[in-house]
């Protein structure tokens, strides 16, 4: 599977990936994002910012890039970057299907900016859209934001089509979301096609505030899945100036940023394969990558453990974050 390339990488940042959710579209729910991006949120302005960040990430050793059909033009921007750099072959590309971007490049659009659909028809349509942009460069295709009630966990026709894609060499995975992430992960572990596990990766939210998926992610890792962690900084709640006092104090003691400490907490989990940076500026990206140098002691880990919230409370707060 493609993630073996990441396991073999020797750069300190090989297990930190870069996700384009925050720069592939003009609106997102990260705190402080209104000040992170250029005043113009035009397609060309965000394309330029994305290409700049991809260049910086690659130069600093990042080898996993995460996009999705619903991240505005993220697949398009990534395809532009890959096309301009044909000699780069050591980057692992993951995308996701299951949400359709509906905000029409309007950061102030009313209502949801993306609509979920885990049907076979949505998969067929979005798989073709991803293929047109990324072609054979796509290594991993994930179902986006699976919850325990998602039909994607029980739809045999969908499973058959995903198995066909796996037979073509594309790794099949899923991302999970919501207060019942653990239940969704465990249900996914039971999905098989012709007696073989369908899913080879799982992407979940895990951070100092939301740790509930940890035991299930350990089970997924033990079952042979590669674990990817998203929202390690809780959509900006664990970055300056919003970080809790305990995190700010620990960051001060390390001499690094709150973001680096938050990512380091994820990286030290024995089941964590890749932790995603969602940086919107090069300065943020460099600060995120300092996570590889953070060494947390037992007292600091205990203080960070005290920040965990009840899953329902965490996800309710996340649902209230505004689209900037």
TrEMBL record:
<dbReference type="InterPro" id="IPR036812">
    <property type="entry name" value="NAD(P)_OxRdtase_dom_sf"/>
</dbReference>
<dbReference type="Pfam" id="PF00248">
    <property type="entry name" value="Aldo_ket_red"/>
</dbReference>
<dbReference type="InterPro" id="IPR023210">
    <property type="entry name" value="NADP_OxRdtase_dom"/>
</dbReference>
<protein>
    <submittedName>
        <fullName>Aldo/keto reductase</fullName>
    </submittedName>
</protein>
<feature type="domain" description="NADP-dependent oxidoreductase">
    <location>
        <begin position="47"/>
        <end position="307"/>
    </location>
</feature>
<dbReference type="InterPro" id="IPR053135">
    <property type="entry name" value="AKR2_Oxidoreductase"/>
</dbReference>
